[in-house]
Amino acid sequence: MHRRQFLGLSIAAGLSLGGLTGCQPGTPLRIGIHPWIGYEPLYLAEEFGWLADSVRLVKGQSSTDSLQGLMDGSLDGAALTLDETLRLHDHGVNVVVVGVADVSVGADVVMADPAIQTLRDIRGKRVAVELSGVSGVMLVELLQRAGLERNDIVEINLPVNEHPEAWRRGEVDVSICYEPTASALEGLGANRLFDSRQLPETIFDVLVVRQEKARSRKAAVKDLLQAHFAGLNHLVRNQHDAIYRVATRQNISVDAVRRALATVALPDLTANQRYLAPTGRLEAVVLKLAHIMSSEGLISEVPLNYRFCDASFLPRSVA
Amino acid sequence: MRSFLLLFFLLSSVFPIPVSADHALTFGVFAYRPDAVMEEEYKPMAEYLSREVGVPIELEILDQPDLNQALASNRLDFVLTNPSHFLVIRSERSLTGVLATLVRRWEQNQTASLGGVVVTLAEREDIATLEDLAGQTIASPGIFFLGGYQAQMLELREAGVRARDIRRVKQLSRHDRVIQAVLSGDVDAGFVRTGIIEQMALEDPDLPNRLKVIHPQNLSGFPFRVSTRLYPEWPLAALPHVDSAVVRKVASALFALERTDPAAVAAGIAGFAPPMDYQSVEDLARTLRIPPYDQVPMVTWVDVIHQYRLWVFTIVVLVILLIASSLWLGRRKRMIGVEQRRQRRMILGWPQPMLVIRDGVFVDSNRAAVDLLRYTSRNSLIGKDVSAFSPQVQPDGRISQQKLHTLIGRAVHGEVQACEWKLARSDGSEVWVDMTLAPIHEKGEPEPLILCSWYDITRRRNAEQRQRLAASVFDHAREAIFITDAHGTVIDVNDAYAGITGRSRESAIGSTPPLPMEEGSGVFQSARQDGFWSGEFEARRETGETIVLTLTISGVRDEHGDIGHFVGVFSDITKSKEQERKLRLMAHFDALTGLPNRVLFADRLQQSMSHARRQGFRLAVLYIDLDEFKPVNDAFGHEAGDRLLVEVAKRMRQALREEDTLARLGGDEFSAIVVNVGDEAALESLLSRLLEMVSAPVWVSNHSVEVSVSVGYTLYPQDGTDLDGDQLLRQADQAMYRAKHLGKNQSCRFSEGKV
User: Fold this and answer.
1) Cβ–Cβ of A239/B158 closer than 8 Å?
2) What is the value of pTM for the model shown?
3) How far apart are CA B542 and CA B204, in angstroms?
4) Domains and CATH numbers, chain A
5) Per the CB < 8 Å rule, is A241 touching B115?
6) φ and ψ of B187, to 5 deg
7) ipTM of the assembly?
8) DSSP B18-65
9) pLDDT tens-digit profile of B463-504?
10) What residues of A are in contact with residue B280 (Cβ under 8 Å)?
11) What positions does the domain SsuA/THI5-like occupy (chain A) (predicted)?
C-alpha cells in the first residue's frame, strides 16, 4: 500500500468518524484478519467453533483491509504488525496491543537476484518494498545493516502480494517480503539475502483493539484471546491436523505450511504475559521501532506517553 | 489368528551383531485389516528389518485381545499399533516413549496423520450430517480404534450427539467388516479409519461410489477421504526389556527405510518419522473418557481448593451459613416447643374451662372444661363442637348450631367473640357460661385455631334473677317501701311510697320517712334494739290531709352483723280505721236517738257501780217508759213517733247532768244512770224536772202532742244485798210499773214487796 494511499485513507476515516457510532454490547466485536501463519490460530478457532459469538472475524486479503477498516471505524480490532500499530497511532487511531500472535524468526525476508551476494550489493538496485507495511521496517533495518542510505537504492513502493508479478516482469532486483510471497519468489529463482532471524524479537504480529473498545468490551476482548490461544494450542499440539487445514485455506502445500511455521515463533500464554508486561519486551520494541520509523519519516513523532500493551485481557489459563 | 515366524539371517552388515535364534525379536503388529492383507503388507518389512538389524524378526499379526495377551506374557519386543491402543498399552506396561511414527503413503502423497471416516450407503438420504446418526446403528472395529471409533465420537460429541444417543455400536474388530456391514445394510453407518476405503477400492473400484462420506473434511494435500480432524499416525514402540542397543539399531533401520524400498512399498508406507506429538490423542481419550482415561484421576483436596478457590470459599461460606441457620432454627424450634408446651400446660392447668377449636371442633380441652360438663374424660369432648353440649335453642331464641356457626366464622376472621351461652351437661342439667372465642392462629396459617373459654355464671344469673324479682316486688308492691341508711335518711323508695305520701321520689330521698309524732326518730333506735319496730300513727299527706299509717321498720344487717340500713314498709289504713269507728258506734249506740244502747248501758252501769263501790257514792238507775206513746205512733205514723222519741230523749238528756248516762233500751223504753246521788230530795227534784221537761208539748207532724213518762228507779248500793246491774235494772223496771199503776207521769222508787 502506498503511503499516499494511506494518508488518503486516513482523511476518509477522519471524515467518516463523525458518523461513527459506538458498538452496542449486543453486536459482536469486529476483528480484521488476513491470511498469515501467525493469525492461523484465530481461523482454526473459528473453524472449530471456539470463537464466542461476541467476536466476529472480518476476513480481508491483506493488512491494508484491516488498516482501512480500523480507520473508517468498520472494525473494532485487527491482527496487525507492530509497525502498522504505530502508524495507526500516528494517524490518530488509538489501539492497544492485547496479544502477541507471533514473532518473526525468518518469516520476513529480503529476496534478491542471485547476482547479489552481500548486503552492500544492493546499492543502486531496484528494491520492491511496501513502505506502509512491515517491509518498510525491514528496509530500514536492511539499510542500517548494509550501511546504506535510502537514496542509495531505488525504492519501488509496491504491495507485497504484487512482488512476484513485478519480479517476473523483471522490474525489481530485490524484494522485501514475507511468506508465502518469499517462497513464490524463491520459485522464481530469487535468493534469500536477509531475513528476520537476524532481527530477533523485532517483528511482532499482534492483536490490537481500539482503546475505547478495550474499555467497553472487556469480555469480548477476552473471548477473542481465549479463541486465539485455543486455536494456537491446536496449531501446535495437533499439527498433523492443523497443517492440512492451513494448507487448504492458504491454498499451499502442506510442506509450505510446515516451512512457514518454521519461520515464526508462536508465543504461548505465558510468553504473551511476559511480552505484554508493563516492563516487558514489547513496550521496548515499540519505542525502538518508533524511533527508527520516526527517523525515516514513516511516522511523524515518537509516542512517548502512550502505553501500547495491555496484558489484562489474557486468559488465566488455556481451556 | 495366525502367527508366523520368519527368520532371516544376516548376509552382509557393517556392524555385525552376534545373533542366535534365541535372540529373535518379536514384532507385534495390530491387525486392523484382514490377516492375509496384513501378512502380505508387513512380511517384506520384517524381512527388511531382519536384514538391517541382523537379528531374526518374528512378526505377529494380532488383533487387540491377542496383542494385549501377548504383551501381558511379555512375548513381544516391539509393537506397532494405533495411537489409542498405544495409550492403553503404555498405561498398562510402562512403555518408553514412541520410537517412531509411521508415515503412510498413498499414490504420490504421504502423510503421518490419520483420521476417521463416517460412511453410509450412498442412497441413504436420511443420513446427511453427523446429527442424523442419533438413533442409528453403527458398525465400528472397536472402541480402541482411533480412526475407527474415537475420532468419530469426538466429532459427534461436538455436533451434539452423545454415545448414548446412538442406538447401537457393533464392534466388528476389522475395518473391512465395517465396510461390508454398511454395504449389506446390517448397519446404518460405519466408522473406519482413513485410507481403508481407498485401499479396498483397489479391489472394488465401484466401492467409493456406493458409499457416502458424512461430514467430509476438505484438507488439501491429505490423500484420503476423512470425516474428522487428524491425529498422528501409528506409533512404533519398544518394550522396556529390549536392549537399548537393539532399540537403537531398529530405530536407525526404520528411519533409514526409503519410500521406494520394497518393504515400504509392500506395507504401503513412506517410512518412519521421528515420533509425533500424541498429546491430541490423549486429549481425545480424556474428552471421551475412554481407557486409559476412563477413570477420573484422583483429585486431592488441595487440587480442588486450588482450582475452585472461589467456589470452595463460597460453598464453605454457604455451609457455615446453613449450619448457623440450622442451629438458629433448631434453637428457635426448641424455644417454640418449650413455648408451645408451656402454653398447653397453661391451657390445661388453667382453673377456668378452656378448649381449643380447629375446624369448628374441639381438638383439646383442659380438666376444668371436662368437669364443667360433668364428663369423666377429655375424649368425650374431642372431635365435637360446642353445639353438641348445648340445648337445641339458646335463651335468646336462636338455634345453638347456627349461632355458634356465626360466632366461629367471625372468630376465624380475627375478631374476639364473647357472649353468654347455655350449656347442657352430661346429666341434663344446664349451666350458664360466659363464652369467649379468641383466634390464636397467625394470619395466613392454613388451619385457624380458636381458643374457647367458659366462665360459669349460673350463680350470677340466679342472683340476678332474684335481684330482678326483688326489684320488681319493690317496684310493684302496694305497700310503700323505703330504705334508709343507718341514720334513718331515706335512700330509696318505691312507687307506692309516693302514692301514699304524695311526695315525689326525688324529694323523698334524702329526707326522713313518715314517723309517729311522739316518737320521731326514736323508732329507729327501737328497731336497732329489737330488730324491728311497728306501729300505727297519724301522718299528714303532702296535701295536708291526715292519714293513718301502719309502719314496720326492720334493720338490715351487713356481713359483720351490724345494722347498716333500715327497711320500712307502711300502708295507708285511714279507711279501715274509719270503718272500725263506725262499726263500734253501731254496736253501742242507738241509731235513732244517738243514745247508748242496752249493751253500752250495761257496760256503763257496770263501770258506774264499781265506781260507786270504790268511791262510796250512791247511784240511781232509772227506767223510763213513755206513756201513751202507742196512740201517737198509731195516729201520726212511725216517723212522727220516731221524732217524738228523739225529742223526748233530747229533753231527758238535758234534764240529766253531764256525768249521768241516758240510754235507749228499745221502743219507747229508756234508762238512765244518775251518779253521785246525794240525798233523796236532790234525786226527787231531778226526777220532777225530768217529768216536767218531758211533759211540755211537742210538735210532731204539725201537731202539738203532749206525752209523759213513767219513771221507776232504784239506788245502789243497797244495804245487805249484793246486786248486779241486771238486778238493779229489774228493780227500776218494777218501780216503773208501779208508777204506771199509780197513774203515770210520776216517778216511783223501788221498794221490796211493792209491785
Assistant:
1) no
2) 0.57
3) 153
4) 3-18+25-103+202-313 (3.40.190.10), 108-198 (3.40.190.10)
5) yes
6) -125, 165
7) 0.76
8) ---GGG-EEEEEE--S-HHHHHHHHHHHHHHHHHHH-S-EEEEEE-HH
9) 988 999 988 888 888 889 999 988 889 998 988 888 888 888
10) 237-238, 240-241
11) 41-241
